[in-house]
Amino acid sequence: MKLRRYTDANEYQADVLDILLEDEVRNNLPISILVDGTRNNIADWLMATVTDDFGSVLLVVLCTKPFPLLICKRENVLDNSSVVFLAKELRRIGFEPPGILAIDELAGCFAETYCGGTTISSRLHMTMVLMRLDRLSEYKKASGFCRMLQFEDLSYTPAWENAFCVECRVPIYTLTESEERIKKRLGMNVHYIWEDGKPVAQAVFGRNTPNGAAISWVYTPSEFRGFGYATSVVAELSKNILEGGKSFCCLFADASNPASCAVYHKLGYYDICKFSEIKFDMEY
Fold it and tell me: How far apart are CA 143 and CA 67, in angstroms?
């Protein structure tokens, strides 16, 4: 096997995008990074493939620090020897990913090999369920209505998104950073607010793939939970995505939060697989 590293993002995309599209839902995160993502600090990225002795790609590998390493194994690859090879090669060349985010089995295999016999420790950060929706189910609509993000919403949405980050254990943005990110969504028909006398929930069209879209930033403040607001705002966004021509919607849900998962299941989302995020720490 061979590890091939790329320094040109366009060349990398040309070589791996069709491979990632073989399983568009499972690979929605790296696909969206390559298709829609900004390419800042690319010198810190790891863009690579693991190939067999005949040049066929076994793994697509992407790490955009400070975010975790993403590895995508092709469906016709039967064992995890390519994952073991990748972990050993990254140690050999001195590339230090902050963690790994991959399908459960692959994440565990990589972490065990990468950390084995070293002073690097691993810890499971979270497990997520990847879900897909092809057709929206009937559901009970909450009181209130759905609308697009407005400028006035910038007074509270950065705090909502910071609270989301804390609850979902993902990197936290400063309020200023969050405000700048949210401003870019104004007029873009991607950030939905559910209002019932006051704003009570939100959902965002977060990532784009050729045939689908990923929903993220689903948040309801604690005092407004239990009224079906999250269900309704996610339903409205999902419906508009599908009616807009996409074949599917997908999202990641916290596997340890059955209430959150139930919100999506009642709308017709179904489980695809589990992803694990494992973080690495250097012990001195």
Answer: 38
Q: Same structural domain for residues 144 and 122?
A: no
Please tell me whether residues 173 and 232 are part of one structural domain. yes
Q: Which range marks the domain in which residue 24 is found?
A: 2-128+276-282
Q: Say which residue the tokens 């609850």 belong to.
A: 167
Q: What is the CATH classification number for the domain harbouring 43?
A: 3.40.630
Put simply, whether the predicted model's pTM sits higher than 0.85 gets the answer: yes
Write down the pLDDT at residue 77. 79
The predicted structure's pLDDT at residue 206:
83
Integer Cα distance of 18 and 129 in angstroms: 24
**How far are the Cα atoms of 134, 213, 241 from residue 245, in angstroms, in the given order?**
12, 10, 7
Specify whether 115 is located in the same domain as 164: no
* pLDDT number for residue 210: 92
> What would you report as the CA-atom Rg of the chain, rounded to the nearest whole angstrom?
20
Give the per-residue pLDDT at 283: 65
- Indicate the number of domains in the chain: 2
Q: What is the mean pLDDT of each run of 10 residues along the chain (284 residues)?
A: 94 95 95 81 89 94 93 86 96 94 94 91 94 95 96 96 88 87 92 97 92 94 94 96 95 90 94 96 69
